[in-house]
């Protein structure tokens, strides 16, 4: 779980989204019999350092795990400073953006 937030990364406020998302994911994953996923602590980073943080963590995780799922949240939204799509793309084997975009837009 990656939280892209310049203000939270600078300790201007405490990020609550990352821990909440981690808890929700852990709850869902623990309810599936035979599923052996663990949810790592959320990483809070500035928008500009998201790509580097994600690359570092993925390079450390891949030798230990055959499957990984990346969740990102926060950030600037769709703007010139938003780098989440570019930061995430090199690590994808399956892109679920189009599957997830419609429900997000429909609910907003």
Q: Can you walk through the features of this model?
A:
The structure is a single chain. The protein has 108 residues and is mainly alpha-helical. Helices cover 42% and strands 8% of the residues. It has helices spanning 6-9, 17-30, 50-61, 84-88, 97-106; strands at residues 2-4, 43-45, 72-74. It has a three-stranded parallel sheet.
Which structural traits does this protein have?
mainly alpha
Secondary structure blueprint with pairings:
Blueprint: E1 2-4, H1 6-9, H2 17-30, E2 43-45, H3 50-61, E3 72-74, H4 84-88, H5 97-106
Parallel strand pairs: 1-2, 1-3
Kindly provide the radius of gyration, computed on alpha-carbon positions and rounded to a whole number of angstroms. 14 Å
Backbone shape: globular
Order of helices and strands: EHHEHEHH
Quick check: average pLDDT? 78
In helices, the fraction of residues equals 40-55%
Enumerate the spans where pLDDT stays under 50 for 5 or more consecutive residues. Answer: none
Number of beta-strand segments: 3
Q: Which strand order do you get reading across the main beta sheet?
A: 2-1-3
Major pleated sheet? 3 strands, parallel
Number of helices: 5
Question: Strand content of the residues, in percent?
Answer: 5-15%
The structure class reads mainly alpha
State the distance separating the first and last CA atoms.
Answer: 22 Å
